[in-house]
Amino acid sequence: MSIRSLGRYAFIQAKLRTRIGSMLTQEHMDQLMRSQTLDELFHALRGTPYEPLLDIYDESGDVQRLEGWLFARNIELHQEVAKLLEGIHADAVLAMTRKLEVENLKGVIRLWFSNTIKQQNIDYRFGYLYQDRIVSDIDWTRIANAENYDEVVEALRKTPYETAVKQWSGKEIAEEGLFSLETALDRTWIHLLRRVVDKLPAEDGDLALSVLDRDADLKNSINLVRFGSLYQLSEEQLRTLMIEGGTLVDSREFTSYLNMPAEQRSPQLLVAKRFPDLAKQLEAMGKVQAEVQTRVVEQYLFTVRSKSFQAMLRGNPFSFGIILAYFFLEERQDAMIRILINGIYYGWDSATIREFAI
After folding, report:
1. Which pLDDT tens digit goes with each residue over 277-315?
2. How far apart are CA 36 and CA 344, in angstroms?
3. Helix (H), strand (E), coil (C) string for the chain
4. Separation of alpha carbons 68 and 337, rounded Å
5. How far apart are CA 161 and CA 136, in angstroms?
6. What distance in Å separates the CA atoms of residue 211 and residue 309, rounded to the nearest whole number?
7. Alpha-carbon gap, residue 89 to 208, rounded angstroms
8. 24 CB-side CA count, 13 A
9. What is the Cα–Cα distance from 135 to 129, expressed in whole angstroms?
10. pTM of the model
């Protein structure tokens, strides 16, 4: 690694370590978990990066505005880190930010669908969506107000998402809904990210690709259990859900799982080779509802992912790993705050909130 690269990572590591140090501690999270009202929750967040939530809630009492602030904060954190970098490393962070761009795009297309196909009023809902530039130049208002699907496609012309949205006609979207389109958009940002990561210097590229491959196997495992066992989608439908990367989709157990009758699909068979401890856990549970199995798989695989990123923080400080770990920790922390807000607002019991937040 060059002296210049070492200097860059030393600066970035110091910056991100400081931010990580200001994140909520486990003790603080335990305190937040004991909150009975949103007022208690937001007052407990005083002196943290989430303190602005208190002012927003005091002004409006609007939970959707709180979620909008969290989403915008996540975008800004990604953009700030990209500005700390240059060249292909900055490009890689912006490519990671496309995940958020696609989430926003899916939200805007859902509004268009509600407005045009379902004839529902969307005026109040559009204001909650992020409307500034994320990575690409996208006219969010034009999409939301499009009179038909062809106009949605035209609004995305010359963007990375043009090919994905052109696969369907307006008639197909109206009849089939948005599920397949949203899946195609997810596959698009992942493909674009892998193309950029391929250009990173060897050590950084190998690390980032290993993370993408691991995440692909984890995500594909979750989707197969959720949609294959719980919702019993067809083999063809399941194949369209698979994201690029990893080794699962080329494995014998993947083929066997798809070839089983939907009602006989076994999560244990699917995960036994890659996650033997999870397979034992599922076997020990005996016959339970597919929904319960799905939740167990999701929790276990999240733990695998979490441990991997924690290991990066203890690893080589002069690598792309510190950036990947930072984004994971921020994303997880935001998700926990979002769960607490919604859980308290909608009256979930403390056990349910803790189940989803941990």
Report:
1. 998 998 888 877 778 888 888 888 889 888 888 888 887
2. 7
3. CCHHHHHHHHHHHHHHHHHHHCCCCHHHHHHHHCCCCHHHHHHHCCCCCCCHHHHHHHHHCCHHHHHHHHHHHHHHHHHHHHHHCCHHHHHHHHHHHHHHHHHHHHHHHHHHHHHHHCCCCCHHHHCCCCCCCCCCCCCHHHHHCCCCHHHHHHHCCCCCCHHHHCCCCHHHHHHHCCHHHHHHHHHHHHHHHHHHHCCCCHHHHHHHHHHHHHHHHHHHHHHHHHHHHHCCCCHHHHHHHCCCCCCHHHCHHHHHHHHCCHHHCCHHHHHCCCCHHHHHHHHHHCCCCHHHHHHHHHHHHHHHHHHHHHHHHHCCCCCCHHHHHHHHHHHHHHHHHHHHHHHHHCCCCHHHHHHHHC
4. 13
5. 10
6. 9
7. 11
8. 24
9. 16
10. 0.91
Q: What b-and-e string marks burial along 38-53, b requiring 16 or more CB atoms within 10 Å of the CB?
A: beebbebbeebbbeeb
Tokens of 73: 């904060």
Tell the residue number behind the tokens 């050590």, with chain if given. 203
Is the backbone of residue 181 left (phi > 0), alpha (psi -120 to 50) or beta? alpha
Provide the token pair at 69.
């602030």
* Tokens 């003790």 found at: 27
pLDDT band at 269 (very low <50, low <70, confident <90, very high): confident
